[in-house]
Amino acid sequence: MIERLQVSHLRNLSQVSMQAAACNVIIGANGSGKTSLLEAIFLLSRGKSFRHSQPKRYIQHHQPAVTVHAQLTDATTLAIQKQADATTVLRLDQSTVYNQSILTEQLPTLLIDPSTMDMLEQGSASRRQLLDWLVFHMKQGFHPQWVAYQRLLKQRNSLLKQTKHLTRVQHAELKAWDKGLASHAALIHHYRERIFEAWQPYFAQSIMQLLPSYVQQLSLSYSPGYDANIPLDVQLEERLTQDLQLGYTRIGSHRADIHVHWRSESASSVSNINAIDSNIAPPVDTHVKLPALKEQAANVLSRGEKKLLITALRLSQLPLLLNSELINKPQLDIDKQRETVQATVSDATATYSILPELASTTETRTTPVVLLDDITAELDDRAIEILLSTLATLPCQVFMTSLTDDIVPLVNKYWSTAKMFHMKHGALAPYS
């Protein structure tokens, strides 16, 4: 958990220092620097901004670099410096490190902000990252496989862009890369599938809280990006001609996706059999049961319901991440948990919480940091209360922003030691 945070030269934050608590609320007008403070924490954790990919866009005008430094409650210190040309310096306990994943492991961050509320309609990247965030923090072997896969994919795509016709040497080189891609893809798929299965009951429980009327209609599925029953290199060889024409690799782990499906309740179609002869019995209503229809949830739900669905996706990740016992649990245990959740779904009188019996016994290696940016503008009062009450029961740290102090009474309801700050023109001060 972050104990002290220092930010220098990020947007309008010249020099900001804060002593943080388990829950921190930053109140201020639009453009005051609230979101920039969350951006700084995200930058420290992920090595990139969630608002813009180019450092020169978020480094303060006339300044050479942005710096973010944090001291955690266990005395660990983390720091990142980004220069305008994207040159990056990373520090862990005063020592220089050369891999962002080292800081990411120390400071897992989960962002819920207005920009994430359109992920159902966007491309697969944001949904894939949603799953990979979990896999990264729960499966240590995942990240090296992912890095190696991305390196080979970059080489393959570079060659595909260079020519429409491969020489014998190029084709042999490509086949060697494809073998490597297939090996890494198989392991990546294995890790993703395991964590996805573990995630399912938590997602179902979160839907029970936020969209209880749609528990039976909403479901989650994972697509590996290729036919996982056939080695990837075999499929790549079959599609090589098309890939050469397009200049990129169309299938593989980089095309994996998470889908949220809507399944309508089975309907009845009524047909009237009209009597041809008046002496025959009167018309009879025949009920024909039609199969349930399945489509993307984004095509069915209202915008408000989509926001609740995306909140459920993100919120359901935290108790899974915090339940370290699940990391290596047998599949049978996961199935039993899913059966328990499904049984609970049928009990309309139940009081729902996200698997509290599991969350209460967790032992976390790191404390996740949840960033809530202007969430009151995206969710209704009921959803906000569910979100905050759930976060308050989990061992995580929360930083949230708000335009007004209307949220303060609700925060105080769940966090007795919450800290309130006021942001104005890039200056942070205690809220009074």
Question: What do you see in this structure?
Answer:
This protein is an alpha+beta fold and about 425 residues long. The chain has a domain at about 1-110 and about 365-430: P-loop containing nucleotide triphosphate hydrolases (Rossmann fold). Helices cover about 40% and strands about 25% of the residues. The chain has 13 helices and 17 strands. The protein has a six-stranded antiparallel β-sheet with strand order 2-1-4-5-6-7, covered by helices on one side. A six-stranded mixed β-sheet has the order 8-14-15-3-16-17, covered by helices on one side. Strand 5 (about 75-85) and strand 6 form a beta hairpin. Helix 3 (about 125-140) crosses helix 5 (about 170-210), helix 5 (about 170-210) packs across helix 6 (about 230-240) and helix 5 (about 170-210) runs parallel beside helix 10 (about 330-345). It is globular, with a radius of gyration of 25 Å. Mean pLDDT is about 85; it is low at about 265-290 and about 325-365.
Mean pLDDT: 85
**CATH fold naming of one domain:** Rossmann fold
Helix-strand topology string: EEEHEEEEHEHHHEHHEEEEHHHHEHEHEE
Count every helix, treating DSSP H or I runs of 4 or more residues as helices.
13
- Please report the distance between the alpha carbons of the first and last residues: 25 Å
Strand order of the largest sheet: 2-1-4-5-6-7
Q: Under the CATH scheme, which architecture of one domain would be assigned? A: 3-Layer(aba) Sandwich
CATH superfamily of one domain: P-loop containing nucleotide triphosphate hydrolases
Rg value: 25 Å
Strand content: 15-25%
Number-wise, the strands total 17
Q: Low-confidence parts lasting 5 or more residues at pLDDT below 50?
A: 267-290, 325-364
Shape, principal axes of CA atoms: globular
Please identify the top-level CATH class of one domain.
Alpha Beta
Major β-sheet profile: 6 strands, antiparallel
Structural class: alpha+beta
Helical proportion, percent range: 25-40%
